[in-house]
Design brief:
The chain is of the alpha/beta class and 202 residues long. It has two domains: 5-16 and 85-198, Rossmann fold (3-Layer(aba) Sandwich), CATH 3.40.50.1000; 18-84. The chain has helices at residues 19-23, 30-40, 43-50, 55-62, 70-78, 89-101, 117-123, 136-139, 146-155, 170-178, 189-198; strands spanning 5-8, 15-17, 84-87, 105-110, 132-135, 163-167, 183-185. Strands 5-4-1-6-7 form a five-stranded parallel beta sheet. The chain has a two-stranded antiparallel ribbon with strand order 2-3. Helix 6 (89-101) packs parallel to helix 11. The radius of gyration is 18 Å and the shape is globular. It starts with a strand and ends with a helix.
Length: 202
């Protein structure tokens, strides 16, 4: 069927976000940085903020366990903007092209803390190009939970069969497809462009 609506993930697709951008300036030893990001401020710990947990509660959870890393733990929120490395240029070009063609509705679905998402809104004008953005942290619900795809479709009155979701996480893509929202697994802007050409979007 003809694609009428495009839904973009943000982090890893349009926004280059990585805790290492900050922590390479916090730790002089790369091995200690890797230990910190895999054993202290872990991806699963960070994901709970994407699901709605407050940063205050998240930090309070870790401080008694790792008092020696108090400054580094607090930096995860206090210096969060240093994890941003700007937009992913090739994908931004694709988004601009879709917007300028004015043939598709544009939305975003992102796993993102509701407390840090305003920092991105301040920095990236292209986030205003979307008709709507569903932020997981504001809903206490994150991908790949099937309910967040259902919420997206219902809130913005999107017909799943004529929509297309783009995400860099394969579990999120698989869950999207299972929820009735066709999806593309993003790896590079070049691959995305080829996929969108094949589907008649570009």
């Amino acid at each position: 069927m003809e694609v009428k609506t495009i839904v973009f993930d943000l982090g890893g697709v349009l926004v280059d976000w990585n805790p290492e951008y900050l922590y390479k300036n916090v730790f002089s030893d790369p091995k200690e940085m890797q230990y910190f990001l895999t054993e202290v401020c872990t991806p699963s710990w960070n994901a709970e903020q994407d699901a709605g947990r407050s940063w205050a509660d998240a930090i309070d959870l870790l401080l008694p366990q790792f008092p020696q890393y108090e400054a580094a733990i607090r930096a995860y929120f206090d210096r969060w903007t240093e994890m941003l490395n700007g937009p992913i240029a090739g994908t931004l070009d694709i988004l601009r092209e879709i917007r300028d063609n004015d043939q598709h509705a544009l939305f975003a679905l992102t796993n993102w803390s509701n407390e840090t998402f305003p920092f991105a809104l301040e920095r990236y004008e292209f986030l205003q190009w979307f008709e709507g953005i569903l932020v997981s942290g504001a809903e206490n619900l994150k991908k790949p939970d099937a309910r967040i795809y259902e919420l997206l479709l219902n809130r913005f009155d999107i017909t799943g069969s004529t929509a297309l979701f783009i995400d860099d996480s394969l579990p999120n893509v698989t869950a999207s497809i299972a929820s009735g929202l066709p999806a593309i697994h993003f790896s590079t802007p070049e691959q995305l462009r080829a996929d969108l050409v094949a589907r008649g979007v570009l």
